[in-house]
Amino acid sequence: MNSHDSNKLVVRRLIEEVFNTGDISAVEKFIAPDYVDHNAGPDDAQGVEGYRQHIRAVRHTYPDFHVRIEFQIAEGDLVVTRVVGEGTHQNEWLGLTPSGSRVSMTGINIDRVVDGKIVEHWGEANTISAIFQMGGKITQAEPA
C-alpha cells in the first residue's frame, strides 16, 4: 500500500471506527496529540480532547449520526474526503429545539496525515441546509 492509500485509510478508519460509532476511546489511534482543528472556535480545545469534544457535541445533537464517504483524493500528506452525514435531530443545536427531523448534510474535509495520525484538519459542511431541515428559518430585520 502506498502512502496516499495509507493516509486515506487513516481518515476512513477514523470516520468508521470513531465518528460513526461514537467510540471516543479510540481517538488516540488516529488523532495526534498536537492535532489542530482549523475550524474550531478560539475557546475550543485542540488535540485529542478537542476531537473528543467535537464527537460528543455532534452525537449529542444527532445520537444516530452516520457519515458516508463518497470519495477521497490524496496528495502529499493531505487527504480530501467528500462526505454525507445523516442523523436525527434529537437535542438542541444553535438554539434550535429538537425537531426529530432526519437531517442530511454534505461536507468536504481536508486532513493532514503524518506518521499514521491526523495532525491538522480543515472542514466545510453545509450546515445551513441542516438548519432548514430542522425547521430553522431566515428572518429579515426591519429596515431602520
Explained architecture:
By secondary structure, the chain is of the alpha+beta class. The protein contains 3 helices and 5 strands; from the N terminus they run H-E-H-E-E-E-E-H. It has helices at 3-19, 47-61, 127-133; strands at residues 31-37, 66-75, 78-88, 102-114, 117-125. The chain has a 5-stranded mixed β-sheet. It is elongated. The N and C termini lie far apart (62 Å). The model has no long low-confidence stretch (mean pLDDT 92).
Defining traits:
144 residues; alpha+beta; Nuclear Transport Factor 2, Chain: A; five-stranded mixed β-sheet; 3 helices
CATH fold name, please? Nuclear Transport Factor 2, Chain: A
**Proportion of beta-strand residues:** 25-35%
Shape: elongated
What is the arithmetic mean of pLDDT? 92
| CATH architectural name | Roll
Distance between the termini: 62 Å
Biggest sheet overview: 5 strands, mixed
- What structural category do the secondary elements indicate? alpha+beta
Note the run of SSEs as H and E: HEHEEEEH
**Segments where pLDDT lies below 50 for 5+ residues?**
none
The domain count comes to: 1
- Strand arrangement within the widest β-sheet reads 1-5-4-3-2
Q: What is the number of E strands?
A: 5
Helix content: 25-40%
* Number of distinct helices: 3
Give the CATH class. Alpha Beta
> What integer value in Å does the Rg equal?
16 Å
